[in-house]
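C-alpha coordinates incoming
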Protein backbone atom coordinates (compact mmCIF):
# COMPACT_ATOMS: atom_id res chain seq x y z
CA UNK A 1 0.00 0.00 0.00
CA UNK A 2 1.16 3.53 -0.79
CA UNK A 3 -0.16 6.93 0.21
CA UNK A 4 -0.36 10.30 -1.49
CA UNK A 5 -1.16 13.78 -0.27
CA UNK A 6 -3.22 15.96 -2.62
CA UNK A 7 -2.65 19.65 -1.84
CA UNK A 8 -4.85 22.41 -3.27
CA UNK A 9 -2.91 25.54 -4.26
CA UNK A 10 -5.35 28.44 -4.33
CA UNK A 11 -2.82 30.93 -5.70
CA UNK A 12 -1.89 29.12 -8.92
CA UNK A 13 -4.98 26.98 -9.61
CA UNK A 14 -3.22 23.65 -9.20
CA UNK A 15 -3.08 20.54 -7.03
CA UNK A 16 0.30 19.18 -5.89
CA UNK A 17 0.49 15.39 -5.56
CA UNK A 18 3.00 14.36 -2.88
CA UNK A 19 4.43 10.84 -2.96
CA UNK A 20 4.71 10.21 0.77
CA UNK A 21 7.36 7.50 0.37
CA UNK A 22 9.66 9.87 -1.51
CA UNK A 23 8.54 12.99 0.41
CA UNK A 24 8.40 14.97 -2.81
CA UNK A 25 5.88 16.31 -5.32
CA UNK A 26 5.42 13.71 -8.03
CA UNK A 27 2.94 15.64 -10.16
CA UNK A 28 1.17 19.00 -10.45
CA UNK A 29 -2.39 19.05 -11.80
CA UNK A 30 -4.12 22.10 -13.28
CA UNK A 31 -7.69 22.47 -11.97
CA UNK A 32 -10.26 25.29 -11.79
CA UNK A 33 -9.77 28.77 -10.37
CA UNK A 34 -9.16 29.15 -6.66
CA UNK A 35 -9.00 25.52 -5.48
CA UNK A 36 -9.62 25.24 -1.74
CA UNK A 37 -11.62 22.22 -0.53
CA UNK A 38 -10.79 18.58 -1.15
CA UNK A 39 -12.24 15.10 -0.64
CA UNK A 40 -10.61 11.81 -1.63
CA UNK A 41 -11.82 8.27 -2.28
CA UNK A 42 -9.39 5.37 -2.63
CA UNK A 43 -12.09 2.89 -3.62
CA UNK A 44 -13.42 5.14 -6.39
CA UNK A 45 -9.90 6.28 -7.34
CA UNK A 46 -11.16 9.84 -7.32
CA UNK A 47 -10.21 13.20 -5.81
CA UNK A 48 -12.73 16.04 -5.72
CA UNK A 49 -11.53 19.66 -5.69
CA UNK A 50 -13.69 22.69 -4.81
CA UNK A 51 -12.75 25.65 -7.02
CA UNK A 52 -14.32 28.65 -5.31
CA UNK A 53 -13.56 31.27 -7.98
CA UNK A 54 -14.67 29.28 -11.04
CA UNK A 55 -17.65 27.87 -9.10
CA UNK A 56 -17.03 24.24 -9.97
CA UNK A 57 -15.75 20.89 -8.74
CA UNK A 58 -12.81 19.26 -10.54
CA UNK A 59 -12.84 15.45 -10.47
CA UNK A 60 -9.41 13.80 -10.69
CA UNK A 61 -8.80 10.18 -11.66
CA UNK A 62 -6.01 9.02 -9.31
CA UNK A 63 -4.81 6.30 -11.70
CA UNK A 64 -3.29 8.92 -13.99
CA UNK A 65 -3.94 12.14 -12.02
CA UNK A 66 -5.93 13.73 -14.81
CA UNK A 67 -9.09 15.85 -14.52
CA UNK A 68 -11.85 13.71 -16.00
CA UNK A 69 -14.93 15.74 -15.09
CA UNK A 70 -16.00 19.24 -14.06
CA UNK A 71 -19.17 19.70 -12.00
CA UNK A 72 -20.62 23.20 -12.20
CA UNK A 73 -21.87 24.81 -8.99
CA UNK A 74 -23.92 27.99 -9.05
CA UNK A 75 -22.26 29.36 -5.96
CA UNK A 76 -19.01 29.32 -4.02
CA UNK A 77 -17.94 25.75 -3.14
CA UNK A 78 -15.50 25.63 -0.22
CA UNK A 79 -15.80 22.58 2.05
CA UNK A 80 -16.20 19.07 0.64
CA UNK A 81 -16.75 15.61 2.08
CA UNK A 82 -17.84 12.22 0.78
CA UNK A 83 -20.30 9.84 2.37
CA UNK A 84 -18.67 6.61 3.64
CA UNK A 85 -20.37 4.63 0.86
CA UNK A 86 -19.04 7.14 -1.74
CA UNK A 87 -22.52 7.67 -3.16
CA UNK A 88 -22.81 11.34 -2.19
CA UNK A 89 -20.50 14.34 -2.39
CA UNK A 90 -21.44 17.09 0.06
CA UNK A 91 -20.50 20.64 -0.92
CA UNK A 92 -20.60 23.69 1.36
CA UNK A 93 -21.65 26.78 -0.59
CA UNK A 94 -20.00 29.56 1.39
CA UNK A 95 -21.91 32.54 0.03
CA UNK A 96 -25.35 31.01 -0.53
CA UNK A 97 -25.46 29.55 3.03
CA UNK A 98 -26.42 26.10 1.80
CA UNK A 99 -25.05 22.60 1.41
CA UNK A 100 -25.47 20.51 -1.73
CA UNK A 101 -25.74 16.71 -1.75
CA UNK A 102 -24.56 15.56 -5.18
CA UNK A 103 -24.73 12.03 -6.53
CA UNK A 104 -21.22 10.85 -7.44
CA UNK A 105 -22.66 8.59 -10.15
CA UNK A 106 -24.94 11.21 -11.66
CA UNK A 107 -23.82 14.71 -10.62
CA UNK A 108 -26.88 16.37 -12.12
CA UNK A 109 -28.86 14.62 -9.38
CA UNK A 110 -28.56 16.82 -6.34
CA UNK A 111 -30.38 18.00 -3.25
CA UNK A 112 -29.77 21.15 -1.27
CA UNK A 113 -30.29 22.37 2.26
CA UNK A 114 -30.25 25.89 3.65
CA UNK A 115 -28.06 25.85 6.75
CA UNK A 116 -26.36 28.50 8.88
CA UNK A 117 -24.26 31.46 7.78
CA UNK A 118 -21.07 30.74 5.81
CA UNK A 119 -20.91 26.92 5.99
CA UNK A 120 -17.33 25.63 5.80
CA UNK A 121 -16.13 22.31 7.24
CA UNK A 122 -18.11 19.11 6.61
CA UNK A 123 -17.81 15.54 7.90
CA UNK A 124 -20.10 12.49 7.76
CA UNK A 125 -20.51 9.91 10.53
CA UNK A 126 -19.06 6.42 9.84
CA UNK A 127 -22.57 4.93 9.82
CA UNK A 128 -23.58 7.42 7.10
CA UNK A 129 -26.50 8.74 9.15
CA UNK A 130 -25.28 12.20 10.10
CA UNK A 131 -23.68 15.10 8.28
CA UNK A 132 -21.98 17.67 10.51
CA UNK A 133 -21.62 21.23 9.18
CA UNK A 134 -19.57 24.08 10.68
CA UNK A 135 -21.38 27.38 10.14
CA UNK A 136 -18.72 30.02 10.64
CA UNK A 137 -20.83 33.15 10.91
CA UNK A 138 -23.60 31.66 13.04
CA UNK A 139 -21.17 30.03 15.50
CA UNK A 140 -22.78 26.61 15.43
CA UNK A 141 -22.60 23.06 14.14
CA UNK A 142 -25.63 21.77 12.25
CA UNK A 143 -26.36 18.05 12.58
CA UNK A 144 -28.17 16.85 9.47
CA UNK A 145 -30.05 13.62 8.83
CA UNK A 146 -28.50 12.40 5.56
CA UNK A 147 -31.60 10.44 4.52
CA UNK A 148 -33.99 13.36 4.67
CA UNK A 149 -31.34 16.11 4.40
CA UNK A 150 -33.00 17.90 7.28
CA UNK A 151 -31.45 19.54 10.33
CA UNK A 152 -31.88 17.48 13.51
CA UNK A 153 -30.02 19.76 15.90
CA UNK A 154 -27.77 22.79 16.17
CA UNK A 155 -24.92 22.96 18.66
CA UNK A 156 -23.46 26.28 19.74
CA UNK A 157 -19.66 26.18 19.82
CA UNK A 158 -16.92 28.82 19.90
CA UNK A 159 -16.68 31.90 17.71
CA UNK A 160 -16.27 31.29 13.96
CA UNK A 161 -16.09 27.47 13.68
CA UNK A 162 -14.37 26.54 10.44
CA UNK A 163 -12.62 23.17 10.22
CA UNK A 164 -14.23 19.96 11.51
CA UNK A 165 -12.66 16.61 12.36
CA UNK A 166 -14.36 13.37 13.33
CA UNK A 167 -12.72 10.41 15.06
CA UNK A 168 -12.67 7.10 13.19
CA UNK A 169 -15.20 5.67 15.66
CA UNK A 170 -17.48 8.67 15.13
CA UNK A 171 -17.68 9.33 18.87
CA UNK A 172 -15.69 12.56 18.94
CA UNK A 173 -16.37 15.62 16.80
CA UNK A 174 -13.91 18.51 16.87
CA UNK A 175 -14.88 22.06 15.91
CA UNK A 176 -12.02 24.49 15.26
CA UNK A 177 -13.10 27.93 16.46
CA UNK A 178 -11.07 30.58 14.66
CA UNK A 179 -11.99 33.76 16.46
CA UNK A 180 -11.63 32.60 20.08
CA UNK A 181 -8.51 30.48 19.47
CA UNK A 182 -10.03 27.23 20.66
CA UNK A 183 -11.34 23.82 19.71
CA UNK A 184 -14.61 22.35 20.94
CA UNK A 185 -14.50 18.60 21.67
CA UNK A 186 -18.04 17.28 21.21
CA UNK A 187 -19.38 13.92 22.34
CA UNK A 188 -21.62 12.83 19.46
CA UNK A 189 -23.75 10.62 21.73
CA UNK A 190 -24.95 13.28 24.17
CA UNK A 191 -23.56 16.47 22.57
CA UNK A 192 -21.66 17.47 25.69
CA UNK A 193 -18.57 19.49 24.88
CA UNK A 194 -15.31 20.76 26.27
CA UNK A 195 -13.45 23.78 24.96
CA UNK A 196 -9.64 23.83 24.85
CA UNK A 197 -7.47 26.84 24.05
CA UNK A 198 -4.97 26.39 21.22
CA UNK A 199 -2.86 28.82 19.16
CA UNK A 200 -3.75 32.04 17.41
CA UNK A 201 -6.47 31.75 14.74
CA UNK A 202 -6.72 27.95 14.39
CA UNK A 203 -8.00 26.62 11.09
CA UNK A 204 -8.19 22.82 10.85
CA UNK A 205 -7.73 19.71 12.98
CA UNK A 206 -6.94 16.03 12.48
CA UNK A 207 -7.34 13.09 14.88
CA UNK A 208 -4.99 10.10 14.80
CA UNK A 209 -6.49 6.71 13.91
CA UNK A 210 -6.06 5.46 17.49
CA UNK A 211 -7.95 8.56 18.71
CA UNK A 212 -5.21 9.46 21.18
CA UNK A 213 -3.89 12.70 19.66
CA UNK A 214 -5.43 15.78 18.05
CA UNK A 215 -3.38 18.06 15.78
CA UNK A 216 -4.60 21.65 15.24
CA UNK A 217 -3.14 24.14 12.75
CA UNK A 218 -2.77 27.71 14.06
CA UNK A 219 -2.61 30.12 11.14
CA UNK A 220 -1.38 33.27 12.85
CA UNK A 221 1.44 31.90 14.96
CA UNK A 222 2.76 29.37 12.42
CA UNK A 223 2.31 26.37 14.65
CA UNK A 224 0.47 23.12 15.28
CA UNK A 225 -0.99 22.37 18.72
CA UNK A 226 -0.92 18.71 19.80
CA UNK A 227 -3.60 17.67 22.30
CA UNK A 228 -3.56 14.42 24.25
CA UNK A 229 -7.16 13.19 24.01
CA UNK A 230 -6.80 10.91 27.02
CA UNK A 231 -6.73 13.96 29.31
CA UNK A 232 -7.58 16.79 26.87
CA UNK A 233 -4.33 18.62 27.54
CA UNK A 234 -2.02 20.34 25.08
CA UNK A 235 1.27 18.45 25.20
CA UNK A 236 3.28 20.26 22.55
CA UNK A 237 3.27 23.21 20.15
CA UNK A 238 5.23 22.55 16.95
CA UNK A 239 6.59 25.30 14.71
CA UNK A 240 5.78 24.71 11.04
CA UNK A 241 5.63 26.90 7.91
CA UNK A 242 3.91 30.24 7.51
CA UNK A 243 0.11 30.34 7.91
CA UNK A 244 -0.62 26.61 8.30
CA UNK A 245 -4.14 25.68 7.20
CA UNK A 246 -5.17 22.20 6.04
CA UNK A 247 -3.98 19.23 8.06
CA UNK A 248 -4.45 15.46 7.60
CA UNK A 249 -2.99 12.31 9.13
CA UNK A 250 -1.33 9.63 7.02
CA UNK A 251 -2.12 6.49 9.08
CA UNK A 252 0.19 4.28 7.07
CA UNK A 253 3.33 6.28 7.83
CA UNK A 254 2.14 7.86 11.10
CA UNK A 255 2.75 11.35 9.76
CA UNK A 256 0.73 14.57 9.92
CA UNK A 257 0.80 16.69 6.77
CA UNK A 258 0.30 20.44 7.18
CA UNK A 259 -0.36 22.77 4.20
CA UNK A 260 1.28 26.16 4.78
CA UNK A 261 -0.58 28.87 2.88
CA UNK A 262 1.95 31.63 3.56
CA UNK A 263 5.16 29.76 2.74
CA UNK A 264 3.82 27.68 -0.17
CA UNK A 265 4.90 24.36 1.27
CA UNK A 266 3.89 21.36 3.37
CA UNK A 267 5.36 20.36 6.74
CA UNK A 268 5.54 16.67 7.67
CA UNK A 269 5.29 15.85 11.39
CA UNK A 270 6.04 12.45 12.91
CA UNK A 271 3.05 11.73 15.17
CA UNK A 272 5.17 9.66 17.57
CA UNK A 273 8.19 11.91 18.10
CA UNK A 274 6.21 15.11 17.37
CA UNK A 275 9.12 16.41 15.31
CA UNK A 276 9.05 18.03 11.86
CA UNK A 277 10.66 15.51 9.51
CA UNK A 278 10.63 17.45 6.25
CA UNK A 279 9.28 20.47 4.41
CA UNK A 280 8.10 20.04 0.82
CA UNK A 281 7.74 22.90 -1.66
CA UNK A 282 4.28 22.93 -3.27
CA UNK A 283 2.31 25.58 -5.21
CA UNK A 284 1.18 29.11 -4.43
CA UNK A 285 -1.10 29.51 -1.38
CA UNK A 286 -1.45 25.86 -0.36
CA UNK A 287 -4.68 25.28 1.60
CA UNK A 288 -5.82 21.63 1.35
CA UNK A 289 -9.07 22.18 3.25
CA UNK A 290 -10.48 18.73 4.00
CA UNK A 291 -9.23 15.14 4.13
CA UNK A 292 -6.44 14.99 1.54
CA UNK A 293 -4.50 11.77 2.22
CA UNK A 294 -5.24 8.98 -0.26
CA UNK A 295 -4.26 5.41 0.63
CA UNK A 296 -3.75 3.38 -2.52
CA UNK A 297 -3.36 -0.43 -2.78
Amino acid sequence: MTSYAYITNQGDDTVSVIDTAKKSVSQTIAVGKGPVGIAVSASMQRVYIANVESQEISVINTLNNSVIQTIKINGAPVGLTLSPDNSTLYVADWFANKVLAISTQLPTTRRELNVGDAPAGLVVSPNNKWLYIANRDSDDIAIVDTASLSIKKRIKVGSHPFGLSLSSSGKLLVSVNVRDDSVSLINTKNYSQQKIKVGYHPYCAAITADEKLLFVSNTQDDSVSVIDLTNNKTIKTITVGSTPEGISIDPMNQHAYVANWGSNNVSIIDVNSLQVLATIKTGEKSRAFGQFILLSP
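note: The longest strand covers residues 2-9.
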